[in-house]
Write a structure and sequence with these properties.
With 151 residues, this protein is α+β, with helices and mostly antiparallel strands. Helices cover 36% and strands 26% of the residues. A four-stranded mixed sheet has the order 5-4-3-6, with helices on one face. Strands 1-2 form a two-stranded antiparallel sheet.
């Protein structure tokens, strides 16, 4: 699992990787004899860094394939949601109709997410009802009440 080195940030593990290769090279036709060795060492270091990175990325792709296979065969449950959202007093109201898929290991993904503006409220409720009919027995969650600060 050499790819895990990609996910180190300041010595601590992180969720995402930021890949950087750094080198300062000067065009060979402008170099003097005393700078050629330094530039050659820099180029050799960059080549080694690239090889190491290519190996790590190959391992990373393998881990992605394994994770995909695990998710493709894992048990999950779906939850249908209708959520009213208003971020601040003068912001527009939005309605979100979404299906949240929760895998047995707790991982969540959203295979369906549709957004409706406040004036499309009826459309959002109709879509929620339609999906509920299409998927009998699906867990549902509806949060469409105004928040206390809106009243």
């Amino acid at each position: 699992m050499s790819y895990l080195n990609l996910f180190q940030r300041y010595g601590s593990p992180s969720r995402e990787a930021e890949i950087r290769l750094h080198g300062y090279l000067i065009r060979p036709d402008t170099l003097t004899a005393d700078r050629i060795q330094y530039s050659d060492e820099t180029a050799a270091r960059l080549i080694e860094d690239c090889r190491r990175l290519a190996d790590q990325l190959t391992d990373y792709r393998q881990a992605l394939a394994e994770r995909y296979a695990a998710l493709a065969t894992a048990a999950y449950r779906d939850r249908l949601e209708l959520v009213r959202e208003r971020r601040w007093r003068d912001s527009p109201v939005l309605y979100h109709v979404q299906i949240i898929r929760t895998y047995e290991d707790g991982t969540e993904e959203t295979p369906l997410h549709e957004r409706y503006h406040g004036q499309e409220r009826r459309k959002a409720f109709a879509r929620f009802a339609e999906l509920k009919r299409q998927r009998p027995g699906i867990e549902t969650m509806q949060d469409t009440e105004k928040k206390p600060w809106e009243k």
